[in-house]
Design a protein that fits this description.
Keywords: Acetylation, Methyltransferase, Mitochondrion, RNA-binding, S-adenosyl-L-methionine, Transferase. By secondary structure, the chain is an alpha/beta fold. It contains 14 helices and 13 strands. Strand 5, helix 6 and strand 6 form a beta-alpha-beta unit.
Length: 337
């Protein structure tokens, strides 16, 4: 009976897959990923295989919740094996596609946990945030990475920027749901076009995160409107141009000696490695930072595809590790121009 129900729900979900997008991805990713694409595709088109990590909110910590996660067989992500892994950040994973219910937004009550794709913590950890630093989250909505940054350290100033007004509302609500009032005073939320931030706040930040608008592979595969999907695909080639412009602005906003992390949730080489190569080829004061060690220490929880870059990682969904896609690249601005 259960098997029949599962098969029925799989068929129901399969009907919602957008063929236009899948065909487009099939052509591109079978070339870029080779044989690995077959497993990646099977997971991306089967939401029943997707996994959800639980990031505990240190500002409303619940010992009961943590005990309950242990009893349910969840384990802690990374478990202190990374060079930078703050004890204040606690993220739990299950090996099975178990999903905790989301907590409702209630004014004045902080949520205890945030559900997320575990791979989205890698760009946050790559940034190595320390207490007192000034940090910019350039494309901040819906706010998960800003919430995660605040689990790591107490910044002197956190600037969350989001150009899209609807997504900005979502960002504000996320911050309100997780962050206590005293800490709200060190957070600024703005609605600037990210490409203008560098001119507005030159060399202002110690750390900058650019979680760029991209081909959201998981989301796009389930587009309900095939005309809209076809339009997205035709406009897809413009995304790397925007991504490079956002990075140029971020570099201007970064102080010399500061770190910049670029991330996307797409497998696309044009939006990942090619964007970073263009930046590295056009700046003499931007240096790649080797993050291969991060891949080595995280290999029990994530599967990585080769990127051909020491400064770039690509998490690909795999059986039992259905995290990603997530590309992460780390750069440093040197003192010389």
């Amino acid at each position: 009976m259960l098997t029949r129900l599962k098969a029925k729900s799989e068929r129901k979900l399969a009907k919602q897959i957008c063929k236009v997008v899948l065909d487009h991805f099939e052509k591109q990713y079978s070339k870029e990923l080779g044989d690995a694409w077959n497993t990646v595709r099977d997971i991306l088109i089967s939401p029943s295989c997707w996994q959800y990590a639980i990031l505990l909110n240190r500002f409303n910590y619940s010992l009961e919740l943590e005990k309950d996660l242990h009893l349910k067989g969840y384990h802690m992500l990374f478990q202190g094996s990374l060079p930078y892994y703050p004890k204040s950040m606690k993220c739990y994973l299950s090996r099975t596609p178990d999903r905790m219910p989301s907590e409702r937004h209630q004014i004045g009550i902080l949520k205890k946990y945030y559900l997320l794709n575990a791979a989205s913590l890698l760009p946050v950890l790559a940034l190595e945030l320390r207490d007192g630093e000034k940090v910019l989250d350039l494309c901040s909505a819906p706010g998960g990475k800003s919430i995660a940054l605040l689990q790591c350290a107490y910044p002197g100033y956190l600037h969350c920027n989001e150009h899209d007004s609807l997504r900005l509302r979502w960002l504000r609500q996320t911050l309100e749901s997780f962050i206590p009032q005293p800490l709200v005073n060190v957070i600024k939320v703005s609605e600037l076009d990210g490409r203008e931030m560098g001119d507005a706040q030159p060399e202002m930040f110690d750390k900058v995160l650019v979680d760029a608008p991209c081909s959201n592979d998981r989301g796009w595969l389930f587009s309900s409107d095939s005309q809209k999907a076809a339009c997205r695909i035709s406009q897809r080639r413009n995304l790397p141009v925007l991504q490079v412009e956002l990075l140029r602005s971020a570099i201007k906003a970064l102080r010399p000696g500061g770190l910049l992390v670029y991330s996307t949730c797409t497998l696309s080489k044009a939006e990942n490695q090619d964007v970073i190569s263009e930046i590295l080829n056009s700046y003499t004061n931007i240096m790649p930072v080797d993050i291969k060690e991060m891949a080595r220490t995280c290999s029990q929880d994530f599967t990585f595809a080769p990127t051909g870059q020491e400064c770039g990682l690509l998490v690909i969904p795999d059986k039992g590790k259905a995290w990603g896609p997530m590309y992460v690249a780390k750069l440093k601005k040197s003192w010389t121009t």
